[in-house]
Amino acid sequence: MTSMTIADLTAKIKSGEVDTVVVAMTDMQGRLTGKRIHGTFFLDEVLKHGTEGCNYLLAVDVDMNTVDGYEMSSWERGYSDFALVPDMDTLRMIDWQEGAALVLADVQWLDHTDVVASPRQILRKQVKALKDAGMEAMCGTELEFVVYKDTYEEAWNKGYKNLIPVNQYNVDYSILGGSRIEPLLRRIRLSMAKAGMTVESVKGECNFGQHEIAFKYSDALSNCDNHVIYKNGAKEIAAQDGYALTFMAKPNEKEGNSSHIHLSFRGLDGSMVMADDSDKEQGLSDLGRQFIAGQIAHMREMSLLFAPNINSYKRYVPGSFAPTAIRWGRDNRTCALRLVGKGQSLRLENRVAGGDVNPYLAVSGIIAAGLDGIKNKMVLEPAFTGNAYASDSQRVPSSMNESLALWEGSAWVKETFGAEVQAHYANMAKIEIAAYGKAITDWELVRNFERF
Question: How far apart are CA 102 and CA 198, in angstroms?
């Protein structure tokens, strides 16, 4: 999905059009971290040898605090470096930063072995397992966000209270509502197109000031790369234009921000292995049914990959278009898994992930569960019809504590992702749970300050 070649970059640096190359990796939280490299130095040194970063980038909390419990990085181990190795297939211009190109990096130890807990490496492992099985994953993520007229600095100084959304009523599908913020949305769309992404559309959503920009699907790795670049770029563009936007899963008590993930398996020759037109009911092949059965079988134990923060679980509210029931249905938005399309467009939409998701981890989980369903020829339950919110189905975990227990206790997770990855992301959850447990919230103050 690159939008430029090394030769293009070389010419742009020599002409002065590009003077900076952003080299970025994705951390546990799905954020871009890395360095801005002077253009000529990138060509002379980093292109050949990569660059380095402190290995605590995969072992800190959201505030960049050093924390205990990570095997790969600690004070006892000296917080040494690992290598950021540019993947030149991801090279592109980012026109919202003057004179800048961007390239994503894989993370390796200095002896050139993989850092297995790196989100991008976790996805690479699952993509390889799928390729070994003769298939590839095609994927598209849909990110919702809420835009405020306040700047990020103003929002911080207000304690994130009394922010002014760009729309003050529900603008779902509203052309008028979208036009109120179209200059910003248009700039984001055009910038992402110039960065090599195929923009499909933009629409208003339900929460006040909530919108969604949709992009065309692609292979799993490139789509997750595009996801993190878009997410980072949208916030940078909003800040430049005097707005703040958030992908937080549940920024208030209205509808949350989702990151619906559309995914299907194809043969390496492009064949539609999940589809079968002779199945008049759903258009699914046996393999397609096994793929969905795998999602249902493993949804609860891999929910930490879809809901990585305390706030993530507050999104799961009946009747909010966020799922609570682990069921699948044909074009049924009350289910966690929604089958849409037919033939070449047939795909499964996972509705569990929120806007705060790390896409590499979530897509890794979907691929792994699908492969396990196929490997073990799992039998798919009938499609659910009606209101899944009101059903007696299995439920999406309602708290991070519940997700942690399921993840940490899963033999399948350990076998599929490895003991190191299982322990690494269990520790991430424990750190978040402990931090939340010490916090005094506004809810507690209102409830307790005077009345107790």
Answer: 17
Spatial neighbors of 92 by CB under 8 A, at least 6 apart, are 2, 3, 4, 101, 102, 103, 195, 196, 229
279 closest CA partner among 370, 340, 337, 342: 342
CB 204 within 8 A of CB 173: yes
Neighbours of 8 (CB within 10 A): 17
Locate 385 and state its tokens: 């019809």
Helix (H, G, I), strand (E, B) or coil at 333: coil
3-state secondary structure (DSSP) of residue 308: coil
Length of the chain (residues):
452
Look up the pTM and report it: 0.96
Does the structure show a pLDDT above 90 at 89? yes
Beta carbons of 217 and 223 less than 8 angstroms apart: yes
Q: Is the pLDDT of residue 1 over 70?
A: no
Instruction: Tell how strand 347-350 and strand 335-340 pair up.
Output: antiparallel
The residue written with tokens 């064949």 in the block is 271
Alpha carbons 329 and 439: distance in angstroms, whole number: 39
